[in-house]
Design brief:
Keywords: Cell membrane, Membrane, Transmembrane, Transmembrane helix, Transport. It is found in: Cell membrane. This is Iron complex transport system permease protein. This protein is an all-alpha fold. The protein has a single domain, classed as ABC transporter involved in vitamin B12 uptake, BtuC, CATH 1.10.3470.10. The longest helix is centred in the N-terminal third of the chain and has 36 residues. The radius of gyration is 20 Å and the shape is globular. The protein starts with a helix and ends in a 6-residue tail after the last helix. The mean pLDDT is 82.
Length: 332
Amino acid sequence: MLGLAVLLLLVVASVSALLGAANLGWTRVVSEVWAQLTGGTSPLSATEAAIVWEVRVPRVVLAGLVGAALAVSGAAFQGVFRNPLADPYLLGAAAGAGMAATIVVVAAPQTTGWVVGPLPLAAFAGAIGGVSLTWLLGRSAGGGTAVLLLAGVAVASFLTAVQTFAQQLNTDTIKQVYSWMLGGLNTTGWSEVLVTLPYVGTAAVVLCVCARLLDVLAVGDDEAASLGINPARVRMVVLLAASLATAAAVAVSGLIGFVGIVVPHVVRLLAGASYRVVVPLSLVGGAVFLIVADHIARTAFAPAELPIGIITAFTGAPFFLLVLRMNRGQLR
């Protein structure tokens, strides 16, 4: 199953790189790729080649990274909290990123010469800060998954209030903030990919290694402890890794919903409930899902571009309602 998923990912990524808003002709793009591999003559002009290698390909890679991060984080959160409604933004990552991004848009001066713009850096710091604040608040209140969930709700509400206050200080920036919150992958090259890859890669490795332990936690903490596993330590490691992946994704893409809920559910329907299968397949499936969604967003109304969050909501919300109906007995 994993091999088929990887094959599908390669096909989807290739098609998305070959086709785009700029009508270069897919056969000419294939010839360009072949020319790069063999040292031959490309049929594309320098500008057209730049569109392929500096716009399309890095955007496809970035979409795959963000989708993989959100989906595998969703699967991890659902395993830790034993709740199929758990979401990558559960612990305040989205609220922290949104608050930090809003503050940068409203207050930060124009900055040039940065490897990565100040907005994604602030969003990353805000997402990590939101999760850290939730963790500290949950620990101070006694720990436990239920307490941590409640702490996440409280922190998200507070940070959202701060964000709204910051917006009201400068209403001229509301459109820019709103566009960021709807999600997008407006990369200008490989810089966003290079910044995101280490965080997503590290988190993905940790979560895949911990997938077997999530299966053990599913049978109960007492049974896990009897097998020599420390449930609290496993949860902490998984939450940290999933939050790191979420923060990295939010920092470069804004807020993109439903990926972390829908993809793990689809994987469970197709391949079963074992996290040894769900986690790696969610990683690949999330990449496939977001590459397809981003391709639709940038080509459906070309040259205009839709926020990718709208595409994921249009496709994810009806499917999520269907999943709720199919599993309503298990959610009570």
